[in-house]
Amino acid sequence: MTHRLAIYDMDRTVTFTGTYTGFLIHVARRMAPWRLILFPGVILLMLAYVLKLITRQRLKELNQALMIGYNVERAKLMPHVESYAAKVVAENVRAGALEQIARDRADGCRLVLATASYRLYVEPIARRLGFDAVIATDHLSQDLRYVRARIAGENCYDTGKLRMIKAWMAAEAIDRSSAYIRAYSDHVSDAPMLEFADVPFASNPHKPLAKLATQRGWTRVDWD
C-alpha cells in the first residue's frame, strides 16, 4: 500500500513572511511589554549568528530568553500562542498555498508541515490549516508546565529537517519504498528534503533555490 504524503515548509512557503520574529514580538507585547526595549539585542544576536559566533539553534534559544523569558508558565503563554496562530492564518498565508493544500488533500495525501519554527506555535497554525502532522523544532520538556528557552534535539533545518522527516516516517511505520512524496519549499536549505521527494516543488523560491531548481529540473511554483 502506498502512503501519499505532501510535505510543506512553512515560513515563506505557506506564509508570505517569516513567523519567528513576529511570534517573539507578539508574545512580548502581550505578556511583558517592557521586553520590547530589549529588541535591539535580537538584532545583535543575529549579527553574532551571521559572524558565526553562535549557532542557529543557540540564536533561537537566546532570542526567546530575551523576548519571552527563560522559563514561562505554559498556561499563561498558550492564549497568546493561539492568538498569534490566528493572526498568521488571517494575515500571512498565501492563497496559492491554500489552494495547493486543498488539491493535495483531495488527491488523498497526508498533509505534513515540516518547519524550523517552534512546534509550540506551529501546531496551532497547522490545525487551523488542516494539516495532519507537524515536524518542527521542539522545546526541551515540550509537554511540561513551563516552556523553557532550550531546544530539544535538533533544530528542524537543512539536513536536520530531513533526518526528522525520516524519523517521523519510521515512527509512523511508513517505509520510503512504499511512499509517494510531494515536497514544497522556498529555500535552498530544504534541498535535502526536496531531493528526498518524488515530486519536489520550488515554491516562491529565493534566487539560490530558483537556480538549483533549474539545474535539477524541479518544478517552480509562485503563489500569491
Mean pLDDT: 95
Number of helices: 9
Q: Give the radius of gyration.
A: 17 Å
Largest sheet: 7 strands, mixed
Sketch the topology as an H/E string, one letter per element. EHHHEHHEHEEEHEHEHE
The CATH homologous superfamily corresponds to: HAD superfamily/HAD-like
> In what range is the share of β-strand residues?
15-25%
What is the CATH top level name?
Answer: Alpha Beta
Report on this structure:
- One of its GO terms (molecular function) is metal ion binding.
- Keywords: Hydrolase, Magnesium, Membrane, Metal-binding, Transmembrane, Transmembrane helix.
- The chain crosses the membrane at residues 32-51.
- By secondary structure, the chain is α/β, with parallel strands linked by helices.
- It has a single domain (3-221), classed as HAD superfamily/HAD-like (Rossmann fold), CATH 3.40.50.
- It is 47% helix and 20% strand.
- It contains 9 helices and 9 strands.
- The chain has a 7-stranded mixed β-sheet with strand order 6-4-3-1-7-8-9. A two-stranded antiparallel sheet has the order 2-5.
- β7, α8 (191-196) and β8 form a beta-alpha-beta unit.
- The longest helix has 18 residues, at 74-91.
- The chain is globular.
- The relative contact order is 0.17.
What order do the helices and strands come in, and which of them pair?
Layout: E1 3-8, H1 20-31, H2 39-50, H3 56-67, E2 71-73, H4 74-91, H5 95-106, E3 110-118, H6 119-129, E4 133-139, E5 146-148, E6 151-152, H7 159-171, E7 179-185, H8 191-196, E8 199-203, H9 207-216, E9 219-221
Parallel strand pairs: 1-3, 1-7, 3-4, 7-8, 8-9
Antiparallel strand pairs: 2-5, 4-6
Helix pairs in contact: 1-4, 2-3, 4-6
Transmembrane segments: 32-51
Protein name: Haloacid dehalogenase
GO molecular function: hydrolase activity; metal ion binding
